[in-house]
UniProtKB/TrEMBL annotation:
Domain of life: Bacteria
Gene Ontology terms describing biological process: carbohydrate metabolic process
Protein name: Uncharacterized protein
Length: 374
């Protein structure tokens, strides 16, 4: 009997001790719970929580992109095409370069300098100008981008002295416009073989235009870029033939886009219509720009590069037509890029489908963001 009481007493003692231990543990400080940042991206972009990127944040991102672009050069000073960052395997820079990419970087540096006004940034701009005018390294360049468009803006700026402006001008004047279409234009210009009056009304009405035999649907992007760039050759040289050439390329791009291929990265044609409107003062080009805005806002952009050109188009159009709808669309596309393309850790924009960071795309975006005012 005493043995049973001893067992029960031992059990009771264990129960009491366990209860005391549990009670003491309940009074102890709980283990810290790891903090998880649940803020939406918009809150990081704009503390006011409006979902609209602030000019201050835009300039910050532009500045970070410029810092990355400093690292995207080879030993000769030419810019590399891209940097690939594969998941968990580090990043690999392209070894291939492109002369035209330096033009986009130079322009982005200039737009960023207008914000920073730092001498070190101006020195880098001047160094890039030297590279772009050095034979066999950056000069001359076949023109398949905005060689003259971007340089003209800088040439008109009070930032540069006469010597630097002459070098900037040479980048454009020394550019080479090439291809079978250019050869055809030069052969036929005196014959007036082509009607250069664009069929914009027909496109707005939804009609499909007949395509000239020389027009190649695969060259749409080049046609649209040339339509813009040759407009600025006209500014530089004052030759009406250059303006006619711009119209010639615009017409071919217009014929192609009239087929309503939603896979086209067509923002460059919107930019061309603005450039031709500014050069000719013909309202039909502005009509197309407004029509293009309505169509593009419904379809959206097909890639990070298309979006980059699209925000450039929207920014340029907003300076002609101070319409809140344009600014709203601009902020919407910037937000799209932030959600689909922006790497917050690197402060760079990658392709929609991969972690490839293209030099030209990031330079374009940086130039637009640096100039974002509201």
């Amino acid at each position: 009997m005493k043995k049973k009481l001893l067992i029960f007493s031992s059990i009771g003692l264990l129960i009491i001790i366990s209860a005391i231990v549990f009670w003491r543990l309940s009074l102890s400080k709980p283990l810290p719970i790891p903090k998880v940042d649940l803020r939406p991206i918009e809150q990081d972009i704009n503390p006011q929580g409006s979902g609209q990127i602030s000019p201050e944040k835009a300039r910050e991102i532009a500045g970070n992109i410029i810092k990355w672009l400093d690292s995207m050069k080879n030993e000769k000073g030419r810019y590399l095409l891209f940097e690939d960052c594969l998941g968990g395997e580090g990043c690999q820079k392209s070894t291939e370069t492109n002369k035209q990419y330096g033009l986009y970087v130079l322009w982005a540096r200039y737009k960023n300098f207008l914000n920073t006004n730092k001498e070190v940034d101006l020195v880098k701009i001047k160094n890039d100008i030297i590279i772009l005018t050095t034979p066999e390294i950056g000069f001359p360049a076949q023109n398949d981008s905005y060689n003259c468009k971007l340089m003209w803006e800088m040439s008109q700026s009070e930032v540069f002295d006469k010597e630097n402006k002459e070098a900037i001008d040479q980048v454009c004047i020394g550019s080479i416009h090439f291809g079978p279409e250019m050869n055809e234009f030069n052969r036929s210009i005196k014959q007036k073989k082509y009607d250069l009056d664009p069929k914009i009304d027909e496109v707005i009405e939804g009609k499909v235009l007949d395509k000239w035999e020389i027009a190649n649907s695969l060259a749409f992007n080049k046609y649209a870029l040339y339509a813009s760039d040759l407009t600025y050759v006209y500014y530089y040289l004052g030759n009406n033939d250059d303006l006619d050439a711009a119209k010639f390329y615009f017409d071919m791009a217009l014929q192609i886009i009239s087929n309503k291929d939603n896979k086209l990265e067509d923002a460059v044609l919107g930019i061309a219509s603005i450039d031709l409107y500014k050069a000719t003062k013909e309202a039909k080009y502005l009509d197309f720009a407004n029509y293009f805005l309505q169509a593009k806002s419904k379809i959206g952009c097909n890639s990070a590069e298309d979006c980059a050109y699209y925000i450039m188009f929207l920014q340029e159009l907003s300076k002609i037509n101070n319409n809140q709808d344009i600014k709203t669309e601009l902020n919407k596309v910037v937000q799209l890029l932030m959600s689909k393309s922006y790497n917050r850790e690197l402060s760079l924009y990658h392709n929609f489908q991969s972690k490839t960071y293209h030099t030209r795309v990031n330079a374009l975006i940086a130039g637009v963001l640096a100039d974002l005012t509201e």
